[in-house]
UniProtKB/TrEMBL annotation:
<feature type="coiled-coil region">
    <location>
        <begin position="497"/>
        <end position="569"/>
    </location>
</feature>
<protein>
    <submittedName>
        <fullName>Uncharacterized protein</fullName>
    </submittedName>
</protein>
<feature type="compositionally biased region" description="Acidic residues">
    <location>
        <begin position="36"/>
        <end position="45"/>
    </location>
</feature>
<feature type="region of interest" description="Disordered">
    <location>
        <begin position="27"/>
        <end position="57"/>
    </location>
</feature>
<keyword id="KW-0175">Coiled coil</keyword>
<feature type="coiled-coil region">
    <location>
        <begin position="277"/>
        <end position="337"/>
    </location>
</feature>
Length: 573
């Protein structure tokens, strides 16, 4: 009777706590509804304009959410769906979709007033509050980033404008590369070229900075009026840089084309052979290198490079001795190719016969290494690569076949593993569902047997944990059955069981004391400064304590056996 009375009191207390939680949560929802305008951060002007454009065509994610939201039957599922959508809008990469967040939040808040379980309502309210706070923090961070970007771009444009105003000073500080090789043909006009190029170096840097700032402005999130202001300033800076740069490029390009034409007219329009091909080659390379260093327009650069390349080809034509060398190399290439072909044929036969793809791949690598060390022509190399590709395909097919076999074996192992897991799961489910109809001893025995089989199985740790989680309710069932059995026993049996448990506790305490004394004697006997008599004394004492420890252990085993027998008797009754 006392147990029933206590149970009723607990139920009444739990009901009072639940009602109190509902009242507090309802009050929080009403307060939040009154203050929700203060919690939502104000959108920027740019966001407002984007929102107006998006009104005509709603965001697909928001539309999908609305559809899913309307399809939910219960209020708690609607609330859960809305909060999950709020969380997804903040968790996505890039700029969060605040518009979707605010819309979901607007739909979410009234649902807290509906009839929802107190525990779920409290949990969802905590998530709702945390997400609202996180949205405010994200909005503040994005505003800070935008302000920082505006500040940095302002600094960069101001520095660019100052640099443009100091054009003459920057030209005086400009230098040319130390490794610049000046052709002999242009030595008389060296200072003119350097003066042009120094001015262009400064203008090139300024033009590059203007273009880079324009690109940075395009991809930086900020208010449109700030962007327009910056673009106007960059446009004004470009008006000071680009026309001047274009005119200087035109002048230096015309001058360089005239000098190259003069060089070609002087050395390559005569039919007589040249005295020094080496000097002409070096002069052509110097002119081509200078063309890369100077800021020329595309037409002038292409024209001069084409004409200089033609001159280079004329020099090559005059080197007739190279024809003999090429003929000799061709014979050598043929011989080397025949040698490698023989090796490839042997390798192909080996690959077709062997079952080891590793050995076959090793043979191929040896041939490839030999090919890299051997001189081969383009045609010979192409032919050998085709044959090598055919052998590689054979090796690849064999390797793929082996991989397919391994994959099938792995699939079979996984299937067997899954079947074993399903078997254990079915046994566990059946045992839990039929636990009420089992006797206590039978239920305990079956559970222990199933757990033992589970631990000996080859299932993964997570799978074993899943099965153990299914069996977890059996603990409460076994405990409840055991308590019922204990309540049903007679006073004599209960008194006898208590007496045996007290004796067991006393004997365990006594065994622990003997164990501590035995450890003390062992440490003392292990000392190296003991004489023979003391050592013998400690040995005798240790032997006695061991006998006492064994007797105490045997007594504990007997008491435990009697307790088990008495409990079995109680359970059977």
């Amino acid at each position: 009777m006392s147990l029933q009375k206590q149970s009723k009191e607990k139920n009444i207390l739990s009901q009072i706590q639940t009602d109190s939680l509902n009242e507090n949560l309802q009050q929080l929802v009403e307060e939040s509804s009154m203050e929700r305008e203060e919690e939502i951060p104000e959108p920027s002007e740019e966001f407002s304009r984007k929102t107006e454009k998006m009104d005509e065509s709603e965001d697909p994610q928001l539309a999908a959410f609305r559809k899913n939201f309307e399809e939910q039957v219960s209020q708690d599922l609607k609330l859960q769906s809305a909060i999950d959508f709020m969380e997804s809008t903040l968790a996505q990469g890039g700029t969060p979709h605040f518009r979707n967040f605010w819309e979901a939040r607007r739909l979410c808040l009234p649902l807290f007033k509906e009839n929802i379980s107190p525990a779920l309502r409290g949990q969802l309210w905590n998530r709702y509050s945390e997400l609202s706070k996180e949205a405010r923090q994200l909005k503040e961070i994005l505003d800070e980033q935008s302000a920082f970007a505006v500040e940095q771009i302002e600094i960069a444009i101001q520095a660019l404008e100052n640099d443009i105003q100091q054009f003459d000073e920057n030209v005086a500080k400009s230098t040319v590369p130390d490794n610049l090789i000046i052709p002999q043909t242009l030595q008389s006009k060296l200072q003119i070229y350097l003066n042009f190029q120094k001015q262009l170096n400064v203008l090139n840097v300024q033009a590059s900075r203007i273009n880079a700032l324009r690109k940075e402005l395009l991809k930086t999130e900020m208010r449109v009026r700030h962007k327009n202001k910056f673009f106007q300033r960059l446009s004004a800076a470009g008006d000071l840089v680009f026309p001047k740069r274009k005119e200087l490029i035109k002048q230096i390009s015309q001058l360089f084309v005239e000098d190259v034409n003069y060089f070609i007219q002087a050395h390559f329009n005569q039919e007589s052979s040249h005295d020094s091909l080496y000097a002409l080659r070096e002069e052509i390379k110097a002119l081509q290198g200078l063309a890369k260093q100077l800021t020329l327009n595309t037409n002038s650069f292409t024209q001069t490079r084409t004409r200089l390349s033609e001159c280079w080809d004329k020099i090559k034509i005059e080197e007739k001795e190279r024809k003999k060398e090429r003929a000799h190399q061709k014979v050598l290439f043929k011989q080397n190719a025949n040698l490698i072909k023989e090796q490839l044929q042997l390798c192909k036969a080996f690959v077709e016969q062997t079952s080891s793809t590793v050995e076959a791949q090793k043979k191929l690598e040896e041939i490839i290494t030999f090919m890299r060390r051997t001189e081969l022509g383009r045609d010979e190399l192409k032919e050998l690569k085709e044959e090598l590709s055919h052998i590689r395909k054979i090796v690849h097919d064999k390797a793929k076949h082996e991989e397919d076999l391994r994959y099938q074996q792995e699939q079979e192992r996984n299937r067997q593993k899954k079947e074993k897991f399903n078997t254990f799961k079915e046994l566990a489910d059946n045992l839990v569902s039929q636990a009420e109809s089992y006797e206590l001893m039978k239920l305990t025995s079956d559970r222990d047997q199933l757990l033992a089989q589970l631990q000996e199985s080859s299932l993964t740790k997570s799978e074993k944990i899943d099965i153990e989680r299914i069996l977890r309710p059996l603990r409460d069932i076994i405990t409840e059955k055991n308590e019922k059995a204990m309540l049903a026993i007679s006073d004599d049996d209960r008194y006898a069981l208590k007496q045996l448990q007290d004796v067991l506790r006393q004997r365990k305490e006594r065994r622990q004391e003997i164990k501590k004394q035995l450890e003390i004697l062992r440490k003392a006997s292990g000392s190296s400064n003991l004489d023979f008599e003391k050592a013998m004394l400690f040995t005798s004492q240790i032997h006695e304590e061991k006998e006492r420890f064994e007797r105490a252990t045997q007594g504990i085993v007997e008491i435990e056996k009697k307790i088990v027998e008495l409990q079995s008797k109680i359970k059977r009754s």
